[in-house]
Structures are given as C-alpha cells and as structure tokens.
Specification:
Strand content: under 5%
CATH architecture of the largest domain: Orthogonal Bundle
Number of strands: 0
CATH topology of the largest domain: Arc Repressor Mutant, subunit A
Distance between the termini: 48 Å
Order of helices and strands: HHHHHHHH
Helix content: 55-70%
Radius of gyration: 19 Å
Number of domains: 2
CATH class of the largest domain: Mainly Alpha
Largest sheet: none
Shape: globular
CATH superfamily of the largest domain: Winged helix-like DNA-binding domain superfamily/Winged helix DNA-binding domain
C-alpha cells in the first residue's frame, strides 16, 4: 500500500493505530533487515535488531520533531540498535570504521578505464564489457542477482552499508550522511569504491569463459 504523509503517519502512531503500524512494518521491515544484516553477524541477530528498532520507534514517536523524514529517523534508530548489538558481534561496524583511510583513496580499478576530466562524461566508464548483457536478459536473471548479492556481502563493512542504503534502499546521499553520521566526502568515496568493486565483480561474472 502507498503510505500517507509523515504527519498523518505520526499522528496515527501517536494514537496507537495498529493498522498504521502494521502497514509500516510491511513496508519498511524488509529494507531494515537488509541494513541490519550489514552490521551484525547473522540473520537472527538482524531480526532482533529490527524488532528493537521498532520498539524504539513506538517509544520515541511522541517526541518525534520532524527534523528529518520519519523513515530516516527510523533508520537512524535502527543503526544505533545495530551498533549496540554489534558490540557483541565480530562483524560490528564502529563509528570510527566509517572514517576514510589512505586505502580508501587508492584506485579500486585501473584509472585508465574511466573517462578523463575533458570528456563530456568525466569519471564514467569508457566502455562496457563485450559480453555485457541486456537489462531484459541476464542482468535481471536470478543467477545474476544471487551473484551480485554475494559480491555485496563480500564488500568491506563500511562500503557494504553505504551501498546498501544508497543502491538497495534508495536513500539520497544527504539521508545516508544523516543516518550514518558521516561527512558527504566519506559517503561519496565509500559509495564509489563499493560500486566499482561490484561492477568489477559483475564484469568478471559476465566475461568468464563458458566451459565447453
């Protein structure tokens, strides 16, 4: 279902409107679970984090001040719960992990494969792989989606969470910065490196030799 405006949702949640809360659960929980899974070690822990986040939403909704969108505020609660839970998990992403290091500025792929500053599309890839599939065929195939999900899982934690929020959940760069409390520069570099790594993984997948 299409959700109403934030003001309507908040008013109904404050009135303890159960159908409204159920609608939010259905609409946002799958994405919240993906984000939580990027922080903690297993699916069960991620489910616990999502449940704790929803409890936090219910407890805090009366004090919600509309300084951000309701969805961004909810995800901020989720990330805080995930960090707390992750302190008992080897896969935790501490806040300091989102700070850039010298490694983050190293080329992810050969810089020569990108268009130069004098090109009409600077920074874009110069060409696609020869066997790059059409969107209607292999790109949307189930096998390709599984391969891409596995590649996302292998990304460094800080890249994985930024790519998940931007490209899986569809948040804007400003919203991701607010949710993760990172600078625009950090978000931009982490997103670029994550996307480049995924693109390289897909390229390997599509150009590998097919066994005879």
């Amino acid at each position: 279902m299409e959700l109403p405006a934030d003001a309507v949702i908040v008013a109904r949640l404050r009135a303890r409107d159960e159908p409204m809360f159920a609608a939010l659960l259905d609409a946002w929980s799958p994405g919240m679970l993906r984000v939580a899974r990027a922080y903690v070690g297993d699916e069960h822990a991620a489910q616990d984090v999502v449940q704790e986040a929803w409890l936090g939403v219910l407890r805090g909704i009366d004090g919600f001040e509309f300084r951000a969108s309701l969805r961004t505020w909810t995800y901020r609660i989720l990330v805080n719960r995930a960090i707390s839970r992750g302190s008992r998990d080897a896969r935790v992403i501490p806040a300091s992990a989102l700070t850039l290091t010298a490694e983050d500025y190293a080329p992810t792929v050969d810089p020569a494969r990108f268009r130069g500053s004098d090109d009409p599309y600077p920074g874009h890839w110069r060409s696609h792989p020869e066997r790059w599939p059409t969107p209607e065929s292999e790109l949307l195939a189930r096998e390709t989606r599984r391969y891409l999900a596995a590649a996302l899982e292998r990304l460094p934690a800080r890249q994985r969470i930024v790519v998940t929020l931007r490209d899986v959940e569809g948040y804007s760069s400003e919203q991701v910065c607010e949710i993760l409390a990172v600078s625009a520069a950090n978000q931009r570099v982490l997103l670029h490196r994550g996307r480049a790594a995924l693109r390289a993984a897909l390229e390997d997948h599509f150009t590998q030799e097919v066994p005879a």
